[in-house]
Design a protein that fits this description.
Pfam families: GATase (PF00117), GMP_synt_C (PF00958), NAD_synthase (PF02540)
Largest sheet: 5 strands, parallel
CATH topology of the largest domain: Rossmann fold
InterPro entries: Class_I_gatase-like (IPR029062), GATASE (IPR017926), GMP_synth_C (IPR001674), GMPS_ATP_PPase_dom (IPR025777), NAD/GMP_synthase (IPR022310), Rossmann-like_a/b/a_fold (IPR014729)
Strand order of the largest sheet: 2-1-3-6-7
Radius of gyration: 24 Å
Helix content: 25-40%
Number of helices: 13
Structural class: alpha/beta
Pathway: Purine metabolism; GMP biosynthesis; GMP from XMP (L-Gln route): step 1/1
CATH class of the largest domain: Alpha Beta
CATH architecture of the largest domain: 3-Layer(aba) Sandwich
Number of strands: 17
Order of helices and strands: EHEHEEEEEHHEHEHEHHEHEHHHEEEEHE
Strand content: 15-25%
GO molecular function: ATP binding; GMP synthase activity
EC number: 6.3.5.2
């Protein structure tokens, strides 16, 4: 099934992704493209039913107001402008209401409401089967939401032609590697290679305190381990990645400045021997989760908290030690357990613990202690560019604190980070 599409042309609006999501909420597919896309490029897109020119505060580039190519107006599909005073079509001077957007998309453009996860999965399964044929696909399966959903979709499409490699770098949350093995090898019968490289990573990180250096070591060593495993395999033609739509949008259009460059958008070597396959590149994060549920993944995996690539390595601040790493792992597990009990696991976007590299005096078991603090962080965000603090009830904070100081060795204090983003970042390192 080919989805009908509404194209959004980026004329400097900060609400492009909101608009795309609102259109998808009408069960119609939408994508964002740069303002200077050509008529031929739009005509090459499948099933374009309408175009929205989305202007905004960032419309001035190098001192000049950006505009679309005049030929766009002769494509022959309905066009709507928002905050675009020089356009050749009638426009709005405000963000469209739900009724206005629905009228334009469904009535004016006559787009069909076919955008849903059942259709998406069927489309991608057919596409993957046609593209891959009898070849093999390699996937680095971290256990995060994106890679897990990619794995489930490819298993549905090509079964054991998919080879999953899960590298445990020793910086995973409690029970996560075991969960990956249980779900994918034991439940989904995946072709899974499990590599325990914990000691190898920790030895490389010994004595390294600079956050960026830690990230580089973890990232580089992961590539080395993954390459070693890939070189043991024969007949691999494709590399699968969990690239999702925000990765592509954040990596910049010609109008918008690059927010951050994602390793999986344009960062792969030109001489890479694998062909790339990215079955989730059309999806926003909530759609990825919906796709995972459609594919039958367990709910706890689909709604797993966002987790940085370096794992607990950037939450064990400064030089990593096994003592503090275990304090992070155990305190994080307690926080996650209690949030689930209080129903906060679905409400809060991201929550975790941090253990810094300093100690304070306290009293534990009626004796003087000189131990580490644990810092709790719980934030809500839409796009990870800004974040607000979750205002937790005292009951929750006191319960978590009580469990951590009683159950986690080498800890005598619990603190709550009240800093939004900005000025703080979501992670501490």
């Amino acid at each position: 099934m080919k989805q009908d599409m509404i194209v959004i042309l980026d004329l400097g609006s900060t609400e492009n992704t909101t608009l795309a999501r609102d259109i998808r909420a009408l069960s119609v597919y939408s994508e964002i493209y740069p303002h200077d896309i050509t008529k031929e490029e739009i005509l090459a897109l499948p099933n374009v039913k309408g175009i929205i020119l989305n202007g905004g505060e960032n419309r001035i580039v190098d001192g000049q107001a950006v505009d679309v190519n005049d030929e766009i107006y002769s494509i022959g599909v309905p066009i709507m402008a928002i905050e675009h005073p020089t356009s050749k079509v009638d426009g709005l001077n405000h963000y469209p209401t739900e009724a206005e957007l629905s009228t334009f998309v469904l009535d004016t453009c006559k787009a069909e409401k076919t955008w849903n996860m059942k259709n998406f999965v069927a489309d991608q399964v057919e596409r993957v089967r046609n593209e891959v044929g009898d070849k093999k696909v390699l996937l680095a399966l971290s256990g995060g939401v994106d890679s897990s959903v990619v794995a489930a979709l490819l298993i549905k499409a090509i079964g054991k032609q998919l080879v999953c490699v899960h590298v445990n770098h020793g910086l995973m949350r409690k029970g996560e590697s075991e969960d990956v093995v249980e779900v994918f090898r034991n439940q989904l019968d995946a072709n899974l290679i499990y590599v325990d490289a914990s000691e190898r990573f920790l030895s490389k990180l010994d004595g390294v305190s600079d956050p960026e250096e830690k990230r580089k070591i973890i990232g580089n060593e992961f590539i080395v381990v993954f390459d070693e495993e890939a070189n043991k395999l024969d007949g691999i033609d494709y590399l699968a990645q969990g690239t999702i739509y925000p990765d592509i949008v954040e990596s910049g259009t010609k109008t918008a400045k690059v927010v951050k460059s994602h390793h999986n958008v344009g960062g792969l070597p030109e001489d890479m021997k694998f062909k790339l396959i990215e079955p989730l590149y059309q999806l926003f994060k909530d759609e990825v989760r919906a796709c995972g549920l459609e594919l039958g993944l367990p709910e706890h995996m689909v709604f797993r908290q966002p987790f940085p690539g370096p794992g607990l390595g950037v939450r064990c601040l400064g030089a990593i030690t096994k003592e503090r790493l275990e304090a992070v792992r155990e305190s994080d597990a307690i926080l996650r357990e209690e949030f689930a009990k209080y129903g906060l696991d679905k409400k809060v976007w991201q929550y975790f613990t941090v253990v810094p590299d300093f100690k304070s005096v306290g009293v534990k078991n009626h004796e003087r202690s000189f131990d580490y603090p644990v810092i709790l962080r719980a934030v809500n965000t839409v796009d990870a560019m800004t974040a607000t603090i979750e205002l937790l009830d005292w009951e929750v904070l006191l319960k978590v604190t009580d469990r951590i100081v009683k159950e986690v060795p080498n800890v005598n204090r619990v603190l709550y980070d009240l800093t939004p983003k900005p000025t703080g970042t979501i992670e501490w390192e």
